[in-house]
Amino acid sequence: MAIMTPPTPHSKLKAWVDEMARLCQPDKIVWIDGSEAEKKRLEEEAIASGEVIRLNDKLFPGCLYSRTALNDVARTEHLTYICSKTKADVGPNNNWMAPEEGYRRAGEIFKGSMKGRTMYVIPFSMGVVGSPFSKIGVELTDSIYVVLNMRIMTRVGKKVLEQLGADGEFTKCLHGKADLDVNKRLILHFPEDNTIWSVGSGYGGNALLGKKCLALRIASHLARKEGWLAEHMLILGIEKGGKTEYITAAFPSACGKTNLAMMIPPEGLKHKGYKIWTVGDDIAWLRVGPDGRLWAMNPEYGFFGVAPGTNAKSNPTALATIKKNTIFTNVALTKEGGVWWEDGEGPAPAECLDWQGKPWHPGMKDAQGKAIPAAHPNSRFTAPASQCPSISPEWENPKGVPISAIVFGGRRERVAPLVYEAFDWNHGVYVGATVASERTAAQVGKLGEVRRDPMAMLPFCGYNMADYFGHWLDMGKRIPKPPKIFHVNWFRKGSNGKFLWPGFGDNLRVVEWILSRTRGEGEAQKTPIGWVPTPEALDLSGLSLPEGAMDQLLSVDRDDWVQEVDSHNKYFDTFDGRIPAELRRQQAALKDRLKEAVAA
Ligand code: O2Y
Ligand code: MN
C-alpha cells in the first residue's frame, strides 16, 4: 500500500486511519490538503477515469457533470440507522441497530472493499475553521466525486488539521462505495462513539457525510448534550433602512427552502428598499449568545440544491450561483456540453443525453405512456455559497447572526392558515412538534396523505424525538430573549383546487408581518391556534389575489382543527409515554380553546 506521511501530529487520528485502512485495504491513502493544485489533479483524474465529465468551459466555466448509479439517486431512509445502545433512545422516528451489530454488518461490507482504489482522507470543518460554534470531522472515502463535492460543501484540508492540533475532537466518518449494491448499503450513525459509517451509496445525503449525517443526526445528539440546537433550517437576513434582521425557517425536504433563502422582493414592495441576504439554505446551528438572544450559523460552505424547478422565476439567484465551479449530478447533458432539466431555463433541447446517459428527445414516453424526464427529479447542483449573489456579508461571522423569529412550515392544502404566531416559546415548540405535510406526487406513498414531520427533522433527528421536544422546551428556559415562533403554509388551496398564495418573492409580505410582530408591531387577531394577521396587516401592494382569497388564506376552520388536534394526540401516543407533559398540556389547552371558540 502506498502511504503518504500523515500531515498531522494527531496520534488518535493516525491510528484510526490505519485501522480503517486495514479494514478496507485501499491501494493508496491520500490526505486532502484543500489546495487549488490538488483540485486540478483530482478533477483530471476523475475525468480520465470517466467518473465525471467537464462541461463546455465557455458555457459553464469550471463545471463538472456526473451521473450516479441508477439505484443510487436519493437518500435511503430505510437503510439509515442510529446505532445507540438502546432502541428506546432512538425512538420510533429512527431505525435502530445495536452498535456491535452495526459495526459487524457494515464491517463485512467494508472489508477489502477499497482494493485497487484510493482512500482519501478529508479533514473538514462544519462552520468557519476555528469558530467555537464549529465541529470538525474527518471523512475517509474511496470516491473522488465525494471529495470534489466535500470540497464545495465544507471547509477542508490543511487549515482544518491545524485547527485539530494534536488531540482535538473530531467525528470519525467512514464512507465507501463498495459495490453500490442497494442490498449492501447501510448508513449508520454511532452517536455515543461520534462515528458515522456509510457504505454502498455514492450520492448526496448518504455519502457527503458532513451534511445530513454529521450536521444534523450526530450534531443533534451533541447539541442536546452541550445545550444548543442543530436544525434543518435556512437562515435569512432581511435588510431595510440600514438594519438587518434574521430569521430561521424549517420546512420538510422539497418545500422550497433554497428558494426562500434566496428570494427576491416582489415588485410591489420594491419601494421599501428591502435587500434579502442568504446565510444558509438547509442547516442552522443555534446557540444562546452572551446578549441572551439566540444566534445561528450555517455549518455548510455550499449548496446541494435540487435542479428541476430551478428557473429564472423560482430562483434567479440560484441560477446565477451555479454558473461556474459547480458539479451537476443526474441532470441532462446537451450536445453543446451544457446542462438542462425540467422546469428549468429555456426550451427542452431537441436531443440530448438523459440522466442515465441515454439519448432523449422531448415527448418521450415509457411503456405506460408516462413522460420520461431528461433529468432525474432529485438531480442536483453542488455550488459554492460564496458565489451566491445574495450571500450575506455575515455568513462567515464566527459568532453567527442573531435570530428574531423561528418559522416552521408544512405543505397543507387546507387546515393551516398562511401564517400564524405562537403564543409563547412552549406553544411554539408544540407548533413545531406537530408540523405536517401532505405527500406530493414526487414522494413515495399515498398522494395527499398527511405525514407528521416535527420541526422538519423527522429524517434527521439522531435520537428519540420525544426527548428532542424536551430539549427544545429546556432551551426555552435558557434563552433570556427568545425569538418568536411562527408557522407558515404557502400551499393552501381554494375550493377550485388552485393555490391561493403566489409564493416565491411574495412570501416576503408574510416575512414582513412576522418581523413586525417581533418588534411588537403588526396587527393580529387572536384565534385558538395562535395570532393570525388581520386582513389589512399584510402589505399586498401590487398583488392581485382572487376575490376572497385572503379570507380563505387566513381562516381557521374549527372542524378541521378539532380533527387536527386529535391527530396530534394520536401522533404523541406513538412515542411510548415519553412525550413531555408540557406538550400534552399544550394539546389539551388548544382543544379547550377550540371548544371555547364555538361556545362564544
Ligand atoms: O437526496 C439526497 O441525497 C439529498 S437530500 C437533501 C439535499 C440537500 C438539502 N436537503 C436535502 C433533504 O432531503 O432535506
Ligand atoms: Mn434538507
Task: Give a description of the structure.
By secondary structure, this protein is of the alpha/beta class. It is 27% helix and 23% strand. The chain contains 15 helices and 32 strands. The strands form 6 sheets. Strands 1, 2, 5, 6, 7, 8, 9, 10, 11 and 12 form a 10-stranded mixed β-sheet that branches. Strands 13, 14, 15, 16, 17, 18, 26, 27 and 30 form a 9-stranded mixed β-sheet that branches. A 5-stranded mixed β-sheet has the order 3-4-20-25-19, with helices on one face. Strand 17 (284-288) and strand 18 form a beta hairpin. Helix 14 runs antiparallel to helix 15. The longest helix is centred in the C-terminal third of the chain and has 19 residues, at 581-599. The protein is globular, with a radius of gyration of 24 Å. The chain starts with a strand and ends with a helix. The model has no long low-confidence stretch (mean pLDDT 96). The protein binds 3-[(carboxymethyl)sulfanyl]pyridine-2-carboxylic acid and manganese (II) ion (MN).
